[in-house]
Amino acid sequence: MPNDSLRDSLAEKRWLTALAQGDPSALGGLYEMYGERIFRYTYRMLGNRSDAEDATAETFLRVLRRSAELRADGAFRTWLFRIARNLCIDKLRQHKLIELPPDAQYGGSEDRTALRITVQQALADLPTEYRDPLVLCDLEDMPAREAAEVLKISVPALKSRLYRGRRALRDKLCGTMEKKMPLEKKLR
Amino acid sequence: MNDFYKKLVDLYAGGELTEELEEELEADAFRDPELSYEMTTLKRTVDLIQSSPEPNFTEESYQRILMKLYARGVDLQHKTPTPAHLQYSLPIQT
Question: Is A33 near chain B, with CB under 8 Å?
Answer without folding.
Answer: no
